[in-house]
Amino acid sequence: MATIEDKRREFRGLHESGCFAIPNPWDIGTAKYLQHLGFKAIATTSAGFAFSSGLSDGAVKRDEMLAHIKELVDATDIPVNADFENGYADDPNDVAESVKLCVATGVAGLSIEDATDRKEKGIYDVDLAVERIKAAREAIGQSGVLLVGRAEGFLLGRENIDQVIKRLVAYSEAGADCLYAPGFKERDHIKAIVECVAPKPSNILIGGAIGLTMKDAAEKVVAAAAGR
After folding, report:
1. What are the angstrom distances between the C-alpha of 29 and each of 62, 93, 162?
2. What is the DSSP-derived secondary structure letter of residue 60?
3. Cis omega before residue 199 (within 30°)?
4. Are 191 and 224 in contact (CB under 8 A)?
5. Quick check: 80 and 73 in contact, CB under 8 A?
6. 3-class DSSP state for residue 112?
7. Element (H, E) at 147
8. Taking the domains of the chain in order of start, what are their residue ranges?
9. 4-221 in CATH: which number?
10. CA distance 98 to 63
11. Could you list the pLDDT tens digit for every one of the 228 residues in the chain?
């Protein structure tokens, strides 16, 4: 059985070169099945878990989500990244408290997004969003957990590529190890996102109308990282 430290080292190693897929299980069964299929890591899905529980996205409380994250960590031998929404708090100090609890579940990574609330679909001002990332970084400390900074502007239809890039760069400078802007609408946005945060890695959400395959995404990421 892989230790927590093993999983965290493996997850960081996966981010150091090339591309890999992180599917989203919503329960123990799907987590075990995805490991069986050979995926190198998995990531929780806040929406998927909520829907499987008969709830709307964002309706799962922090302690329930922490319990869900831990059961997936305990059920598998591969790294688990936690979709930790907005840290279940607005204030940076409260975000830090939530992050410490998430680290204690044994996750290899966790994401903090800048959406204020799933119902209101607002986005934190950049300065506050940066302070929240800094608080998460400090809370993670020397645990080895990878911090993903999420910019939700595309997904919520609130910001354009220039605004999203400004946020990603700010989150990177604040201590995020990996950057993520789900919901982009144009393939050229991949190049812009990868280049703006390089040499740090970027996550790409594959799906939607632009029809990216894993091969397409990998080629674009590698080309952007090489400056082509």
Report:
1. 22, 35, 40
2. S
3. yes
4. yes
5. yes
6. strand
7. strand 146-150
8. 4-221
9. 3.20.20.60
10. 9
11. 789 999 999 999 999 877 899 999 999 999 999 999 999 999 999 999 999 999 988 889 999 999 999 999 999 999 999 999 999 999 999 999 999 999 999 999 999 999 987 566 689 999 999 999 999 999 999 999 999 999 998 888 878 999 999 999 999 999 999 999 988 878 788 888 888 898 999 998 876 656 677 777 777 665 555 555
Annotate 130-156 with b (16+ C-beta within 10 A) or e (fewer): bbbbbbbbebbeebbbbbbbbbbbbbb
How far apart CA 67 and CA 106 sit, in angstroms, is 11
For residue 48, give both structure tokens: 């998927």
What length does the chain have?
A: 228
Q: Which structure tokens are listed for 107?
A: 């996750």
pTM of the model: 0.92
CB 87, CB 116: distance < 8 Å: no
The residue among 137, 132, 140 whose CA lies nearest residue 108 is: 140
CA–CA dist 25, 115 (Å, integer): 22
CB 75 within 8 A of CB 31: yes
Q: What is the DSSP secondary structure assignment for residue 89, as one 8-state letter?
A: -
| Burial class of residue 125 in the structure, from the number of CB atoms within 10 Å of its CB (0-12 exposed, 13-18 middle, 19+ buried) | exposed
And the tokens for 52? 């499987």
Question: How many CB atoms neighbour CB 211 within 10 A?
Answer: 9
